[in-house]
């Protein structure tokens, strides 16, 4: 019996090898991603221009200083948006009617407002209101005799809340609504029988969600979350309207001071494309390697 199984395995392996050998070079050539080859060609040409042309070299040095700020804003904002989105995503699948309605109200309202409007609203309306709340809480704490904590809050001023912080808060609020829907869809994609099986084993609903449902849901939503991070990376250019020194803002300042708009925005577009295309390839690689996609 073992010899028969081994013979069958060898035959199958041989057929697979012969199938691979029968593939002609034209088959591999036909499967090449031409868009990626064209993008790499354009990237190499622009990179060569950056290194060879003196003006482009100066522009690149001036604008590339904003890469760190852009990545900092995106990483911090996305990390916080994940936590807020997960909380609202869990509330969206909760049996508690109050939690469900509150989360649904937040998600539907935020998703219906453009990101730029959210940015302006948080920067010039929400931030001053938040400072007033801090001052009120600080005053109440001081009256209760908790001056150590109340005094800093009571003296907190609007100038202490930088525009970078306001921009990140706006990105967190804007993207947490979309991430909440991603988590909700991931949780609901897990078969209901698994929750029932966990409950039959004596777990509470919270334990079943934590140990059984969420680990599977998180693996399923990783590719969509990667796409959302790429979208946030592009939308982070909006923070330049608040004066945050990111790639777009530095490019705009350099272009308006030298009137080299064509060259400057070529460099700005190149930097964003390098980051977004690189992240897109990582997300696609994960989607192909994710075993859940084969089910």
Please provide a written account of the structure.
The chain is mostly helical and 295 residues long. It has a domain at 43-95 and 164-289: MetI-like fold (Orthogonal Bundle). Helix content is 82%, strand content 0%. The chain has helices at 2-22, 25-30, 34-52, 54-63, 67-92, 97-111, 115-143, 147-154, 163-189, 192-200, 205-235, 247-258, 261-289. The two termini are 31 Å apart. The model is unreliable at 1-9 and 15-21 (pLDDT under 50).
Comma- or semicolon-separated keywords:
single chain; 295 residues; mainly alpha; MetI-like fold; flat; disordered N terminus
The main pleated sheet reads as: none
Structural class by secondary-structure content: mainly alpha
Radius of gyration: 26 Å
Q: What best-fitting shape do the alpha-carbon axes yield?
A: flat
At the fourth CATH level, what is the homologous superfamily of the domain at 43-95 and 164-289? Answer: MetI-like
SSE pattern: HHHHHHHHHHHHH
Give the count of helical stretches.
13
Average pLDDT, rounded to a whole number, is 84
Provide a quick synopsis of the model.
The protein has helices at 2-22, 25-30, 34-52, 54-63, 67-92, 97-111, 115-143, 147-154, 163-189, 192-200, 205-235, 247-258, 261-289.
Lay out the secondary structure:
Elements: H1 2-22, H2 25-30, H3 34-52, H4 54-63, H5 67-92, H6 97-111, H7 115-143, H8 147-154, H9 163-189, H10 192-200, H11 205-235, H12 247-258, H13 261-289
Helix pairs in contact: 3-4, 4-13, 5-6, 5-9, 6-9, 7-8, 7-9, 9-11, 10-11, 11-13, 12-13
């Amino acid at each position: 019996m073992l010899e028969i199984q081994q013979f069958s395995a060898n035959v199958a392996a041989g057929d697979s090898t012969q199938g691979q050998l029968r593939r002609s070079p034209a088959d591999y050539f036909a499967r090449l991603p031409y868009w990626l080859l064209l993008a790499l060609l354009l990237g190499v040409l622009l990179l060569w221009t950056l290194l060879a042309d003196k003006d482009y070299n100066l522009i690149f040095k001036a604008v590339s200083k904003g890469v760190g700020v852009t990545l900092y804003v995106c990483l911090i904002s996305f990390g916080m948006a994940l936590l807020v989105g997960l909380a609202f995503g869990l509330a969206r699948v909760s049996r508690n009617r109050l939690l469900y309605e509150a989360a649904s109200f937040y998600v539907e309202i935020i998703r219906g407002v453009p990101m730029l409007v959210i940015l302006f609203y948080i920067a010039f309306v929400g931030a001053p209101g938040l400072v007033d709340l801090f001052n009120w809480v600080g005053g109440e704490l001081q009256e209760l005799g908790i001056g150590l904590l109340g005094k800093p809050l009571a003296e907190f001023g609007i100038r202490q809340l930088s525009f970078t912080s306001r921009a990140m808060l706006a990105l967190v609020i804007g993207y947490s609504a979309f991430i909440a829907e991603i988590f909700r869809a991931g949780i609901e994609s897990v078969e209901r029988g698994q929750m029932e099986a966990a409950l039959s084993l004596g777990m509470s609903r919270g334990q079943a969600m934590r140990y059984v449902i969420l680990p599977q849901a998180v693996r399923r939503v990783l590719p969509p979350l990667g796409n959302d991070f790429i979208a946030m990376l592009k939308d982070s250019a909006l923070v330049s309207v608040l004066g945050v020194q990111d790639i777009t803002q530095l490019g705009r300042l350099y272009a308006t001071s030298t009137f080299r708009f064509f060259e400057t925005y070529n460099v700005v577009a190149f930097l964003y494309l390098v980051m977004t295309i690189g992240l897109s390839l990582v997300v696609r690689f994960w989607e192909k390697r994710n075993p859940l996609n084969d089910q």
